[in-house]
Description:
mainly alpha
Amino acid sequence: xxxxxxxxxxxxxxxxxxxxxxxxxxxxxxAGLIAWVMFCRNYGDMADLIGLPGxxxxxxxxxxxxxxxxxxxGPMVLWSIFVDKVHRRASTGLDWDNPRPLGxxxxxxxxxxxxxxxxxxxxxxxxxxxxxxxxxxxxxxxxIIGAAAIPLxxxxxxxxxxxxxxxxxxxxGAWHFGAxxxxxxxxxxxxxxxxxxxxxxxxxxxxxxISILPGGFAFVVxxxxxxIFADPARLAQLCIEMLFVIDVQIGTVGYLLTMRPLDxxxxxxxxFLGGWLAALICYPPLVFAFMGPDGMIAYxxxxxxxxxxxxxxxxxxxxxxxxxxxxTGIYAWATxxxxxxxxxxxxxxxxxxxxxxxxxxxxYLSKNLFWWCAVMPFFVTSNSLVDVIRNTVFLGCVxxxxxxxxxxxxxxxxxxxxxxxEYHEWMEENGVITSRLAKLKRxxxxxxxxxxxxxxx
Length: 457
């Protein structure tokens, strides 16, 4: 083997960076959520036991679903502060040991509040203009956000004044936007863009996540588990719904707790237009145009699903249902690994534990495998080959969109943080799934493409 050939196989040794969120954070949130779900399921018996007035039935309403956020977030926040001590990290941009006198940066705080309140007002205006926020499940989200609006504005004053005392650089994105609005000197257009990328993400996805809280929560709380083990399809459905509730609850906490003292602030939003397009296609209202029942790439035309096609064999139903539960469990675990930092299109630190030790995109991988295994697009009730081809091709298009999302997210994180670059490189060589895919890619890549990237000798 020549020296040139040997160098092509040389790999730089890297180490797996420590995750910015400890593995336990998501699990304590899960424990709190399960405790609340069990309380709600058994509320009637508990009310009888302690003599509470009112109806004797499970607490499955939308407000119980919202209150579940407190039981999910509370343990994670306490663990993050008292065990992981995240508030002491340099990445927060806070110096708790050298606080400035209250009001020392009052002029900065006033400009920042102006920028923050203007941001609230603009987002509220966008909610009003977008018709989909005033129908269906979004009505509940608008009710919750509307109720929170005044407390949010009022509490922002002591919060900003308190935080500005310890911020190393109090002139953040909100200040730059406020300075632009008030005609102050020194504002940076790039900081204004960064501010708005973060807030558009928070405003768009927070409303969506709140809107889907009640449905899954009510299903899990109200579902009668009697005889469920004798029905593999029903058993799998209940387990899958519970896992989706975990994903939605922990994910919603992530969007709401973008707070610097918790080191959970949005450090940057994805700056690539392709990243935004790939993500927004997967959510209302665009998802209906693309993947809805009458969408351009609808992939469930005349399909009946896994339980229909495998219904002739209970053993196969149990096995296939277990596979779907496993894939959904990986998906929920991927969200839990973020703790209080989950959100789309953002950089909020590096996650390297849990399922992120095996692949860089466990949620996307498990979600797409779930769809292929659950929908079975290659089987149709119409006996039409055209339906089979369309469903299969279009579900392939959906998977391609998620591949596109993954690549744009990687591009964002690679330019933001050397720690992520270390993680990316480590996974390329050591990730159980990622490394094998990387080897396959290198094997499939033409030799000329590889050698052309090498330095001239």
